[in-house]
Amino acid sequence: MSDPTDDPQAPAAPEPASESPVQRALRLKQAAINAREKPPRGGRFQREQAARIATGKSKPWMSR
To answer: Which of 4, 24, 39, 61 has its Cβ near the most Cβ atoms within 10 Å?
Structure first.
């Protein structure tokens, strides 16, 4: 049968009873940020991103 610890509907982290509304909002915000899709790291993608803007191109007034 099913074990109560295998319940997929159970919350991942129980809410503390002494949590203030501000702490709760911060915890929910951090959870939402961490759940976002992250860009790929390393490899060709990172090299392309690094090579996209050459040094000094973002400050055209510095060139003569």
So the answer is: 24
